[in-house]
Amino acid sequence: QVNGCSGSGHTTSSQSLHQHTSFISMETLDTSGSVTALHCRNRWLVLQRLREERGLDALFVALGPDARFERAGELLFNWLLNGLSGRELLGSSLESAYEDCVVCIQSHSSKIFCKRAVLEDLVCKTAMWESCEVITATAEQEVDEDDYENCKTLAFIEMMSNVTSLGVALRRSSDGEGEGSEEGGGGGGPSNRQGAGPGDVKLALEAWPLVQAHAYDEFGLGFLTMNRSVTNLEDILQTQVYPAWDCLSMLQARAFVPKLVKAWDEAMLFRDRLFRLGQDDDAAAAAPLVDFFEYGRLAMSDEDVFEMRGTTSSFDAESFPLNPAPRILVGPGQTTYIQRAVRADSLGAAVSVGPSSLPAVHMIWEAIEPNSGLAVCRTYLLGARTLFEEAPIGRQLREAEGSEASPPPAAAGAPVTNILGLEGEQQLRLQQAILRAYCMAASCCQYLLESTAASAAFAKDEASRNHCLTDMACAFISERGRVPGHVQVTCTELDAMGLSSDRNSPVGLFFVRVVVSEIRCPGVDETLGSVAYGDSVFSATNSSPSESISVVSKGLFFTEGHIPAFSFWTTLSEQTRSEEVKSGLDSCLGVGFDPGPSVALGHRSAVRVYLEKKGPPPDPLNLGKCLDREVESALAWEVQPQLQGQCEMSCWTSGTAWTFQSGKVVFHSPRTGYLIFEVLRGGVLSTTSSKQMVWQPLQASSSSVLSGCVALSPMTAGTYQSSSSAATLAREGEGQGGSYRRPAGDEGWVYNEKLPSAALSSEFLLTAALAGSNCGQLVDTKLTDPGSSPVPCKCIWLSGLPGCRTYDVAASLVLALDAQMVDLAAVLGLGVGASDGIADMRFMASVLAGVVQPIVAQGTRTIVVCDVLCNPYEVLSDLAVQGPFAALCQVIHVVSVLDPIVCYPWGRTRHPLLLSRCHRAWVSAVVLQHPTTPSTSSHSTSDAEARALQRERQALSNLLRKQVEAARGSREAVFSRDTTGLVSGPLAAPPSSAVARLIALPEAPGHFEWLASKVRLRCAFVPVHSFVDIGLLQDSISSCLDLATADPVVAGALRGLFCVEAKVPGLRQEELEGLSPEELLSHLRGEGVQDPLYKLVMTGAGQVASPEKWPEPLASRCGVLFWWCIPSSEANAAAGEPASARRTAAEQAVEESKLRAPPKRKRWAVKDIPEDALADAREHMLTAELPEGYFFDGNKYVHVDGYEQKDHPSLGSYLELLVSKHNADVQAWNAAVDEASLLLAQPPASLRR
């Protein structure tokens, strides 16, 4: 089997890449994380490149007992076809259903042997592998163990034919080398993997039972490795292939984000518990982060990973420290260690630092996901005074449209009153300095993650990358204010195993951390330590060597769960003010207030009557009348002390609120304690995520800037408005959508990140797919996106394979679209002279333009081009952009028509060109023909055999549908002769963009020759000018198709023949001999015959239904059209010898099927009368009248004279009459035969008409 897509690779610019990204949806890119045909194709391309780079003919994988349960092969199979990645791959085991699988990947084809139970699974996963053949035993063979093993061995021998160099994956022994050579040696460090050592790769391979079967005497092939070189690829797989990121591993890594968020939340809850217990051990809060990391790496530790890579013989924790690492650093001394790596065996240990006279006012949290390496770093505050002291924010909280991380809007420029005390001025200055530095670090990190200017740095080596990003960070900060500290940016690349790497690969995971160290505060001699903010980002780089273009796309994956960008914990010394507010609130609400002496009513003891009125309870905070008590609420405010430009950090928390008629609000949450604020009357309101609440701006009496807002009910907020009633506010609240959605959990401190939208994620995945599939080189498919320039006519290109009744579908589309049909075969003159296929796209475009021009001149706006010769890839990338044709017509959609009997002409082996006819984005829709009912006209075919054949064809139809759906990644755009759904569905949609087509075919055949098309369609048309014998024609075609799959030496010119179409004047020889002379001549003259033409379409899988509308040359001429699928090298050969040999073989097959005149009949004498005719004559004479003088005594005829005889006396005369009549009929028949010979030598009357 061979490849079905072709084209030449070129380079495109970044502008064309990103210009049409918005047309791609997440669904188009298979972002579910499940294993799809596109993902398996990308990994198959990686192995093909590895095979080519190593100069190997084939890569071979055997599983289960056939390979002595070789672990390295199981890992390769799980990576390739089961979609496993990262540490999950290294610790995985093989499912038992795959234990008998054998995989062989070569340049021209890929073959897989498997059990029937996993056949459909592997067929769907390899649906986008060019030239892939999935082989399985029959149900009867699987039952018989000997037959099954023999079938597997024969498949293996076929895989190894014509292979001289072989690549395998084998574990190495402790004294082994790194990368294997022909004899197993090579460069690299020592390894602890068990298996083949130096010089033992061949011996280890020959120990496999399946390989040993190659040397059985019955095959006569000898040992497999006797004439073949063997290379062990395990080291390069472990060090380069498995650690590399691709689309599937990135999508799977995204699934680990919620686990990291959960561990982070657990650490914060643990810190809350320590706070409630009055414990001040902040480093102990790191236990959940450390446990999450260590338990996550128990199944596959770093030592195990390095051992499998063979890079070190003994793992040393000092040699491979962690940076980033799970840790919490507290205070000025410990936070300076944030840029230092941590040994794995010292995680969770407290960092020893010298004494400091400054209090700890902040701490740095860092965590890492153990499987993927996704890391995050934040700085949190100890002490809450700075949050509620005067903070000149000076801007309105901006509204978010569905973003979790956006703060609520509020009025700008409103006064704020801080009613907290001003004790601890030094601590306040320290906190402000820390917050100032941290806000700038967070803003700077976000800028580096989003800025296109910073993208180029991700393509550099680590040292250059850190230097470049640090310079950009300093420039960014200098434009917004001066931070009293030193700025340093580290950008660490992590591979798919979560280990630090500097491979500089096209797709990578980077942890970007911005650290501001040596922070100083006016009036304080000592430095305050460091603050840090860091996030993980995936980066994909595409570079064009010809134009020196580098396009870097980054995708953020913290979109489904938030890691709080800012949080704080109040210190124990700050609880005094909270207790004062709580005491004042309780007093205002009458909690514990004694109203004086009272008496109870006798009949109602629960009702008490007070003897004197003592007045309302004391109100030390001047709260006034209470409106709402203990209602669910939220508090939000901005955090950024005196920075130029807009504030980009805000925080909020949920809690409980008490509102009062005086305009004051008391708010309580576990971390803030009890706070008191005053609302801004007449402030701008905005709805929260719940339509029952609105955001009310807050103010206080001693300042003039906005600090925050609180969530209240519309009715309560309405009492604080001067121009709006409560009812109006309630209606507005119900009508507005939620502009601010609360993060998960009760506490959320959110950094206002510009989280990536679906379009950004799609763009990133697109670039990652292109970079990973094409070695970082962009591909120019020479595609102009539809609609870029107006053209007079639109074109629907109807493609397919020969014999699939493509022209019947075209006829329906022409009527539905009110279009005009163009037969490409007629345009090219197929079947005329020596034309047997397409030689040049430019020539074809020129000829096609000459046909389309008069059609367009008549005002036609839509044409349907019918074609079975061209690949859709070639049509859209080459023909459609040729000047003469492109100026007249634009190909907006390609529709493929497929028949299961044609697509599987050799059992369940798919046609080499099937994949090229169903690539999504290139092909808008696929029409699947129903399997035809086999003909039962043959006397040799019983009804039971016909039903069995029909079931087999239905199974092929189901297999074709599954394979097409897998190749397209969707069940959509697959139809069954539903013209209405086709016209209103895919054909009504906008054409696919160049970007979408790059997703389906990202590779560049110009860069990788083994991806170039290996086959071409070629045909041979044999015109028929006389009658043919239908029975002989069927037998002759069937013999040719059977011979086409035989050994090349035996098949000869018929090698690759897969379909034959015939429309001929034909009769059956045996039917002619039973006709009368008049009927014989009438049939040959075509008199009284409604349809004198016989139609036949046949493949190696049997007969296919004949089309109602034939393409040229069969549309206007009678003949037989033979279709070959031949190697491209033969198709492009300048010499015409192969084409001449194919035509000669076709002509010979048709010549053998010519209808011959019936044989002449012999004249009779009485002695020549056959015995059966003589017996019939005697039977007839029993009822004849006897001559005079004879009578019949029941046994014999007796004469009156006494003599007797056995036969009727008149039998002789009757026989003479019989002979005379027969001879007359013979004379007429022979005369008719003579005339028939003349008629058969001439074209039939139907053709002459």
Detailed description of the structure:
- The chain is elongated, with a radius of gyration of 43 Å.
- The chain is built from 40 helices and 40 strands.
- Helices cover 33% and strands 19% of the residues.
- It has 1249 residues and is α+β, with helices and mostly antiparallel strands.
- β20 and β21 form a beta hairpin.
Mean residue pLDDT: 76
The radius of gyration is 43 Å
User: Oligomeric form of this entry?
Assistant: single chain
Main sheet properties: 6 strands, mixed
Output the keywords.
1249 residues; alpha+beta; 6-stranded mixed sheet; 6-stranded antiparallel β-barrel; 40 helices; 33% helix; elongated
List the helices and strands and how they pair.
Elements: H1 14-19, H2 37-53, E1 58-62, H3 71-81, H4 86-90, E2 102-106, E3 110-114, H5 119-125, E4 132-136, H6 139-143, H7 145-160, E5 165-168, H8 201-206, H9 209-212, E6 229-232, H10 234-241, H11 247-254, H12 257-276, H13 287-296, H14 302-309, E7 327-330, H15 331-334, E8 362-368, E9 375-382, H16 385-388, H17 425-450, H18 462-478, E10 486-494, E11 500-501, E12 507-517, E13 531-544, E14 549-555, E15 568-569, H19 575-588, E16 598-600, E17 608-610, E18 626-638, E19 650-660, E20 664-669, E21 673-679, E22 686-687, E23 694-699, E24 708-712, H20 714-718, H21 726-735, E25 747-748, H22 758-773, E26 793-800, H23 806-817, E27 820-823, H24 824-828, H25 841-857, E28 862-866, H26 872-877, H27 883-886, E29 889-898, H28 900-903, E30 925-928, H29 943-968, E31 974-975, H30 979-984, H31 994-1000, E32 1015-1023, E33 1028-1029, H32 1030-1044, H33 1048-1051, E34 1057-1067, H34 1069-1072, H35 1077-1085, E35 1093-1099, E36 1102-1104, E37 1119-1127, H36 1128-1131, H37 1137-1151, H38 1171-1181, E38 1190-1192, E39 1197-1199, E40 1204-1205, H39 1211-1240, H40 1245-1248
Parallel strand pairs: 1-5, 3-4, 5-6, 9-15, 26-28, 26-29, 27-28, 29-30, 30-31, 33-34
Antiparallel strand pairs: 1-2, 2-3, 7-8, 8-9, 10-11, 10-12, 12-13, 13-14, 16-17, 18-19, 18-24, 19-20, 19-25, 20-21, 21-23, 22-23, 23-24, 32-37, 34-35, 34-37, 35-36, 38-39, 39-40
Helix pairs in contact: 5-29, 12-13, 17-18, 35-39
